[in-house]
Amino acid sequence: MRIPSASRLLSAVAPIAIMISASGSSALAQESNEAQSATVFQLEEILVTATRREQSLQDISTSVSTMGMDELQKQQINTIEDIQFMMPSITMGQDMRAAKLFIRGVGVNTSTSGVQGSVAVHVDGVVVGRPEAQTFSMFDLQRVEVVRGPQGSLYGRNAVGGSINFITAKPTEEVDGYVRATIGKFGQLTTEGALGGAITDNILGRVAYKTENRNGFGENPVTGNDVDDLNRKMARMHLDFLISENVDARLTADWFRQDDASGSLKFIRETFPDIPALRSPVRGGFATKPRDLAGRFDPATEMEGWSVSTELNWFVNDMISLKSLTSFRNFEGSFTQDLGISAIVADLSTTGTGNTFQRRDLSSDQWTTELQATVSTSWLDGVVGFFYFNEQQSPTNTVGLEPNFGSPGNLDAFANRLTFLGPPPPPGGGVLPNLTPLEAHATCNTLKLVNDLQEIPEPKRVCIDSQLNSDAWAIFGQATVQLGEFVDALETVRLKLGGRYTRETVDSTNAANIILGLGAGPVMRFTAEQTFIKRTFEEFTPEVGLEWQAMPNMMLYYTYSEGFKAGSPENNAGSRTILEPETIKNHEFGLKSSWLDGRIQANMSGFFYDLTNLQVNRTFPDPSVGFLIVFENAAEMSAHGVELDLSAHITPRFRVNGAVAYLDSTFNDFVSANPIDPRNNPNYENFNPTELDLAGNRTRNSPKWAGNFSAQYDLFVGTLPYDGTMTLVGSVSYRGETFFTEFNDDIQSEDKFATLDASIRYESGDGKISAEFWGKNLTDQLRKSATFDLATAEVIGANYHPPRTFGFSIGYHF
To answer: Which segments constitute the TonB-dependent receptor plug domain (predicted)?
Structure first.
């Protein structure tokens, strides 16, 4: 704990809390004549499951933001990336096709395959472990819940920063469903729909689907094809079995597939433009427009996954209920891109450097099981449970002259040049025998292609074939106790207690074949047996808090909580590294309040935390291999901040929502080397490895200020065809300066910016017909969402948020 941070936090929180409570009645009492004469209206009560049981948002001492189905559609929220512009405590970008989710400055700081995120993602209570698979669940949703701050008690593993929960629409007894279609700029065509209802007296069902197609935001000037296009399909099915009055079961299955040229990094500039010796060896083939990507081959993203889950509920009596939730999830992905971000043929024979076309294949199988018991009495409300998680990942990373094969001469390298070991040496020392070309292809994961061709083409110069496994279990519980049941004077005070014991075992192997000298030298080999490493981590993460119902419409709370993320392995040639676990200690003060008979809700939270052993990686140039990955723990970071969420039904026709987040997140103790400092480049004449003291630097993806304000006004109510209503919707989002590395370099950051979205929406009186014209990023801001320093080619790449888009949507609900 840092006392200066806490004092600054309290000094910021106190005036806001006083201002809200003092001015709530006076300022907001100035209603329009229309509102004063209208029937009483108020905001709908929001029920959430952030505490693993259904409760009112205003009754829980947890910072939660929600968006329901109607709001998601009105704001054209289709991805997790879209959510961040409505909920400013979230930051999300992606590189290497993996979601980089951050909440309050805590998130995944590595692009290495196999590393888990620090923000958990759940769909109907089931965790989605792979960051690559976390962007496919946003369709046919009842709501989205974003739980901010460490959730060590209830969510446990990898919820150091918080959790994002997708709650899908469930079957109903009555026939219910919708169809919706959207056309828009860049050739967008999106369709979605759902149908549910009773199949028999005791079986309910619901099916849903979504398709997304779009032309590219840019193009490859060499091939003339689109890049950053979109081609995705997804579907889900629920079957509810009403076994008895007290017992029900649900079977859920979902599937998704993506096949397009999205997600690849775009060229920003050469890393060292003013140092001739370090100029990119593939310079001259770069695209000139920021959203374009030049290359001999188009980038490719192919992903497919499916899952099956079962949920069994037994409502024992009015006080006790039991739940069992079990799921299996499979994910397969293949991603290709040129690490040189250039159309030049990077090969020893043409540029004097090793080839740079990367392919990453990833396969993952995940099992989860959770058992819960929920208790609700006049004085106690709580849940206890057991959780099990197992994931087996098989990432294969290769670098060659093209997506599947390597350079001429690699056959000779594998067949005739002496192979030797990187550390550690084999028992008794010595060297490995030469690889056959077929053995090289087996490691490269291209043996099937060889068999299809019925000949042996050139294998790649870099092949890293890894196996990364996690096996975890936990016992957890959380309860809120009404202290008034024991002491009359504490009638308005509740005590919250929680805790989780976690045990996780992690192991990895990183077999690899690498032709040294960028393809000119002998072959370095690592075997799975030589690189095997296994570690077990144990942690207890407690939670304790107080809730004070100061007024019927106001609750104040304080919570101390801890979070834990097990040590991660890396997908890197020959690596025997498993880092230390991340741990966080968090203090939070909060206010939940409503005013004017529920027409206004104002919620506020202030927090400060310390996080140790942040897991960070980056790449450096290497004259033998082309790049070297450094994966390490940052010693310590800390942060403090304040968040304010406001919702108001100003008049029967006028509604507003707003959120503001302030975050000061910095390193306290971290010494490391910057890849874009030329002194750390072995090809520099003044090569002198230099580490920097990063204390005081801002952490990644942590803007100091972020906010959103949206408003809706009903222009016509019940006077349009079919008693329809026309509504204007507008939204402004702001993001302060954001750094994408811990070195706070200008080139790898995004300056502050604001974006504007707007729409005009028609809805019939019975709610069945809807239509809207909409526009997003109307000022066409070019905004980076992530950057990456590509050591193989001495260039810096970036991904960008979407450009200005607009379109028309129409839907029918039945």
So the answer is: 57-162
* Cis previous bond, 437, omega within 30: no
pLDDT of residue 80: 82
Measured CA to CA, the distance from residue 95 to residue 268 in angstroms comes to 14
Judge whether 58 and 592 are in contact, CB under 8 Å. yes
Q: Is 499 exposed, middle or buried (0-12, 13-18, 19+ CB in 10 A)?
A: middle
Residue 30 predicted with pLDDT over 60: no
Picking from 676, 763, 677, the residue whose alpha carbon sits closest to that of residue 720 is 763
Q: What is the DSSP string of 22-49?
A: HHHHHHHT---HHHHHSPP--PPPPEE-
Of 231, 243, 151, whose CA–CA distance to 203 is shortest?
243
> Can you point out the beta strands (E) in 199-319?
203-214, 218-219, 226-227, 230-242, 247-260, 266-270, 300-315
The closest alpha carbon to 115, from 789, 572, 525, belongs to 572
If pLDDT is split at 50, 70 and 90, which confidence band does 421 have? low
* C-alpha to C-alpha distance for 118 and 362, rounded to whole angstroms: 20
Parallel, antiparallel, or unpaired: how do β-strands 738-739 and 126-127 relate?
Answer: unpaired
User: What are the structure tokens assigned to 413, written together?
Assistant: 């390298």
How would you classify the pairing of strands 462-482 and 119-123?
unpaired
Other residues' Cβ atoms within 10 Å of the Cβ of residue 391: 21
Q: Which residues contact 36 (CB under 8 A, 6 or more apart)?
A: none
Residue 549 falls in which region: left (phi positive, over 0), alpha (psi -120 to 50) or beta: beta
User: What does pTM read for this prediction?
Assistant: 0.90
Give 410-415 contacts, CB < 8 A, sequence gap 24+. 410/440, 410/458, 410/459, 410/460, 410/461, 410/515, 410/519, 411/437, 411/456, 411/458, 411/459, 413/461, 413/515, 413/519, 413/522, 413/523, 414/439, 414/440, 414/459, 414/513, 414/515, 414/523
What does each C-alpha distance from 81 to 91, 102, 230, 358 come to in angstroms? 8, 11, 15, 25
Angstrom distance (rounded) from CA 739 to CA 508 = 31
Answer whether 77's CB lies under 8 Å from 83's CB.
yes
Tokens in use for 166? 């997708």
Average of per-residue pLDDT values in the chain: 88
CA distance 573 to 399: 12
**What pLDDT is attached to residue 3?**
38
Share of the chain above pLDDT 90, in %: 62
Q: Model confidence over 533-556: pLDDT tens digits?
A: 999 999 999 999 999 999 999 999
Instruction: Please give the average per-residue pLDDT across 719-734, as a whole number.
Output: 94
Q: pLDDT tens across 372-394, in order? A: 999 999 899 999 999 999 999 99
In the predicted structure, residue 39 carries a pLDDT above the cut 80: no
310: Cα separation from own chain's centroid:
25
> In this structure, which CATH number among 3.90.850.10, 3.30.110.30, 2.60.40.10, 2.40.170.20 belongs to the domain 3-813?
2.40.170.20
Residue 233 has pLDDT above 60, yes or no: yes
Residue with tokens 């037994």: 314
**Residue 811: both structure tokens together:** 């839907």
Convert 170-199 to b/e letters by CB count within 10 Å (16 or more is b): bbeeeebbbebebebbbebebebbbbbebe
Amino acid symbol at 352 = G
Range in 114-128, 487-501, 655-669, 775-789 the model is least confident about: 114-128
Q: Can you tell me the mean pLDDT for 9-16?
A: 38
